[in-house]
Write a structure and sequence with these properties.
The complex is a heterodimer of chains A (166) and B (265). Chain A has helices spanning 23-30, 64-67, 86-93, 103-116, 123-129, 141-165; strands at 2-8, 11-17, 49-52, 55-58, 71-73. With 166 residues, chain A is an alpha+beta fold. Chain A has 2 domains: 2-77, Ubiquitin-like (UB roll) (Roll); 86-159, DNA polymerase, domain 1, CATH 1.10.150.120. In chain A, helix 3 (86-93) runs antiparallel to helix 6. The relative contact order of chain A is 0.15. With 265 residues, chain B is α+β, with helices and mostly antiparallel strands. Chain B folds into 3 domains: 5-49, 2-Layer Sandwich (Uridine Diphospho-n-acetylenolpyruvylglucosamine Reductase, domain 2); 57-165, Uridine Diphospho-n-acetylenolpyruvylglucosamine Reductase, domain 3; 169-264, 2-Layer Sandwich (Enolase-like, domain 1), CATH 3.30.390. Chain B has helices at 12-18, 33-38, 74-79, 81-86, 88-94, 100-105, 108-114, 121-128, 141-144, 212-220, 245-264; strands at residues 5-8, 24-27, 46-49, 59-62, 65-69, 131-134, 138-140, 159-165, 169-176, 183-192, 195-201, 209-210. Classes of the chains: A alpha+beta (166), B alpha+beta (265). Chain A binds chain B through residues 2, 18-20, 22, 41-44, 46, 49, 55-58, 60-63, 65-66, 109, 112-113, 116, 129, 131-133, and chain B through 1-6, 8, 27, 30-31, 34-35, 37-39, 47, 49, 51, 75, 98-102, 104-105, 179-181. The complex binds flavin-adenine dinucleotide (FAD) and FE2/S2 (inorganic) cluster (FES) (2 copies). Flavin-adenine dinucleotide (FAD) is lined by residues 25-33, 35, 50, 70, 97-98, 102, 106-107, 109-111, 113-114, 116, 119-121, 153, 158-159, 181-182 of chain B.
């Protein structure tokens, strides 16, 4: 057993876990944050993607003890109260989900990719960036549309913020 | 996953001490070891985490000499501006390993220590004539990689860095397995002061190897056209549900052409 302490969605949390506990299980079972999903055993589907110290990572391929000391954002931490995050809003607007199982991972991957591409994204880049996220329902088309739309709104928002600041 | 004891190493010396416990294994990015433990293909009693050792991280470029710390992630190799200038092929390779989440955690040290016959880095290190630095010695890539998942590393030996002199030209092309994205065949070519080297991953039935046929043709002329009509024997190549040895033999030539085109671009 080891003591794990993390900051999850802005809240300090800690707990004693078996060393073999995966981060995803700690999030779901100890913290009750069931938005992060498990879709495979092979680290390939991306349903479990969360941000660890600001970077997209597969929480099914990391022990909770490995993550101890880090800051984590899960799907539950994206919205600002009742206001959806722009990526969440775009998935809703563009019908980027059907059953919704892959969606938390898709959205966490999408926010990470938009952050890394402030210059903007095109369809080829979005599809390449989605390499590690599998969706059994949508055929990806509307997911790609939603990410492109969110990337536009977010770069506009950051430009107008920069203008105001200047 | 079977029960395991986790230890976080604070330095290379600390890791060397901690690895003595039971049937312990080093843990770096965990992108190979954790999936293997989840499916119980690996069951170490203890894990010694190297990923918090600051000395093992980072890329140094001085002139043409490159040193990459073992715990440097694929993401950092893909995005390092200095490395991109002296050896863009290696950054390109790192940027095409797996997916973004895998690249954020997986490390070069873990990849070379694991020596998966379909991994990308072994071909680069062999073609670059790189040196693998451990806490005990320096090993030339030519001697380091031994067959499938085998290297000359001892169980308690830690890869600390990889070093090489960037050649004038280098290029990498892989034909990714459509499901796993590992290389079904990948070829890394270099042209430096010691001549041409071409290393092949994903195709050999005994792991990464240098192709004599490709090197001979490219030594005459370092152009894709020099490979027209060149054939690579399929005798020691892998055959599986994805591709026959003959198909892979053809892929070696096709990927080598693309790698040379990239190197000359
Ligand atoms: C979905 C997915 C897709 C992938 N696609 C690709 C791909 O396209 N191409 C590719 O090349 N790889 C691919 N990989 C593998 C990935 O690159 C791994 O990151 C890499 O093979 C292992 O590095 P790691 O840091 O994760 O090592 P770990 O998993 O932590 O360790 C791997 C092995 O190396 C040993 N080890 C680790 N570090 C050291 C060290 N410093 N000294 C001595 N021994 C050490 C460990 O004990 C273990 O046996 C993929 C992985 C996943 C999950
Ligand atoms: S559950 Fe993590 S990649 Fe599938
Ligand atoms: S919406 Fe069902 S798996 Fe993607």
């Amino acid at each position: 057993m080891s003591e794990v302490s993390l900051v999850v969605n802005g809240r300090k949390v800690s707990g004693a876990v078996e060393d073999r506990t995966l981060l995803v299980h700690f999030l779901r079972e100890n913290l009750g944050l069931t938005g992060t999903h498990v879709g495979c055993d092979t680290s390939q589907c991306g349903a479990c993607v969360v941000h660890v110290d600001g970077k997209a990572m597969k929480s099914c391929t990391m022990l909770a003890v490995q993550a101890s000391g880090s800051t984590i954002t899960t799907i539950e931490g994206l919205a600002n109260g009742a206001d959806l995050h722009p990526v969440q809003a775009a998935f809703k607007e563009h019908h980027g989900l059907q059953c919704g199982f892959c969606t938390p991972g898709m959205i966490m991957t999408a926010t990470d990719m938009i952050r890394r591409h402030p210059e903007g994204l095109d369809e080829i880049a979005v599809r390449a960036e989605l390499e590690g996220n599998i969706c059994r329902c949508t055929g990806y088309h509307n997911i790609v549309k939603a990410i492109l739309a969110a990337s536009k709104t977010m770069s506009k928002a950051s430009k107008s913020k920069a203008k105001k600041a200047a | 996953m079977y029960s395991v004891n986790y230890h976080r190493a604070t330095s290379v010396a600390d890791a060397a001490k901690k690895i003595k416990a039971g049937d312990a294994k080093f843990l770096s990015g965990g992108m190979t070891l954790i999936p293997a433990m989840k499916t119980r293909l690996a069951a170490p009693s203890d894990l010694v985490d190297l990923s918090h050792i600051a000395d093992l991280k980072g890329i140094k470029v001085s002139g043409k000499n490159v040193t990459i710390g073992a715990a440097t992630t694929h993401f950092d190799v893909a995005n390092d501006e200095k490395l991109k200038k002296v050896c863009p092929a290696l950054s390109h390779l790192a940027g095409h390993i797996g997916d973004p989440a895998v690249r954020h955690r997986g490390t070069i040290g873990g990849s070379v220590a694991n020596n998966d016959p379909a991994a990308d880095y072994p071909s680069a290190l062999l073609a670059l004539g790189a040196t693998i630095v451990t806490n005990k010695r320096q090993i030339a890539a030519d001697k380091f990689f031994k067959g499938l998942f085998e290297t000359t590393l001892k169980d308690d030996e830690i890869v600390t860095a990889v070093t090489f002199t960037a050649p004038a030209k280098s290029g990498y092309a892989k034909f990714p397995n459509p499901a796993s994205r590992y290389a079904m065949t990948g070829v890394f070519v270099t042209k430096g002061k010691d001549g041409v080297r071409a290393a092949v991953t994903g195709a050999g039935d005994d792991g990464v190897f240098r192709s004599k046929e490709i090197e001979a043709a490219l030594t005459k002329k370092f152009e894709p056209a020099a490979l027209d009509g060149v054939s690579v024997p399929s005798k020691n190549l892998m055959g599986d549900i994805h591709a026959t040895p003959e198909y892979r033999a053809n892929l070696v030539v096709v990927m080598a052409k693309r790698a040379v085109a990239a190197a000359n671009a």
